[in-house]
Amino acid sequence: MSNSIDEILKQPKLSKQDLINLLQTDKIDRNKIFTHAAKIKADYVGKKVYYRGLIEMSNICSKNCYYCGIRIDNKNTERYDISDSDILDAVKFAHENKYASVVLQAGEISSPKFTKRVSNLLKEIKGISNNELGITISLGEQPDEVYQEWFDSGAHRYLLRIESSNPDLYYKIHPKNEKHDFETRLDCLRSLQKTGYQTGTGVMIGLPFQTYDDLASDLIFMKDFDIDMCGMGPYLKHIDTPLYEHKDLLMPIDDRFTLTLKMIALLRIIMKDINIAAATALQAIDPIGREKAIKVGANIIMPNVTPGMYRDSYKLYENKPCTDEEATDCTNCMEMRIGITGDDIGYGEWGDSKHFAKRTSQS
Ligand code: 5AD
Ligand code: SF4
Ligand code: FES
User: Fold this and answer.
1) Can you give the three-state secondary structure of 47-84, one letter per residue?
2) In this predicted model, what pLDDT tens digit does every residue of 80-119 receive, in sequence order?
3) What is the pTM of this model?
4) Residue 281 belongs to what domain range?
5) For the chain, what is the domain count?
6) Which residue among 58, 59, 65, 68 has the greatest number of ligand 1 atoms within 8 angstroms of its CB, and so is best to mutate?
7) Ligand 2 centre and the CA of 63: distance in Å?
8) CATH number of the structural domain spanning residue 136
């Protein structure tokens, strides 16, 4: 394919077969993809990285996803639920350090009590930051009314990964029951979009049973769904989960890493003005994994601001980085890291999805 890669990349629209071929490129060709994606990023969203201070509120989850270390049936995880005042301290840290946004993430819990608690937190965050902090939430599947209530309370971005756009694969990595229903996940994504959130989704890359066809379909799914943001990362095994049993089906970890970079670069090429996060899971494989993602198209990074004592317990996968650090350590470290990429840091800027602005001004 070497001769034609430049031609393929020049096309206004990449077909599914093009994407499948591009995902399988060797080193020389993949560097062409990366260079092309980097140029598109610079042209459309600029060489700037925006921070989202990540607060992992609680690792209590009602679900049982086969891949995830904090699934309800994993009794080897110590559960925690950070107090509101500790959460707000982390928020203050983010604000004082000019992280213009925070992300509240937790296992999936649906209850009137939890809904109220999050609403109050959102209002508090807006209050203590004089409305300056942008808020992304990642709190799973919820009824429409809850999405609305949280939107009205101040959240304006929502992340809900589809995990895989192929329902057959979805049910290989989730139990097939009412609580893990593919159609519900899709309905939730639609509901988020309708409510007015900047809507983000994403997938895991290198899952057992996953094919290149699946990954190309994931890219097309994100394009067709017209998402505003994406967070996707490599699948990493976790010994206390059912999917671990299929570890022999996995491609080597370095290949999963490279494939993730290709997915990021290709998504940047087909969705030029969205926000793409450099997933923390990349850093579990390569010490400068996130920086490499920034080089090939990602423009968002989520420095962990969760108080250090809880970090080790929010273990979705093995080798999670920064679990021994405190937020200040990550801030210093991040600055140096982004420096290496040659991008600027958008301190004090929300860095909202340009795609969202365009999408909503047209409708
Ligand atoms: N490897 C990689 N990513 C994982 N996630 C959960 N478990 C794993 C794992 N073992 C991701 C899922 C989920 C997000 C919060 O973390 O995609 O949506
Ligand atoms: Fe819960 Fe999310 Fe983990 Fe599934 S992936 S078990 S919903 S935290
Ligand atoms: Fe957390 Fe480097 S980013 S210690």
Assistant:
1) CEEEECEEEEEECCCCCCCCCCCCCCCCCCCCCCECCH
2) 999 999 999 999 999 999 999 999 999 999 999 999 999 9
3) 0.97
4) 2-362
5) 1
6) 68
7) 6
8) 3.20.20.70
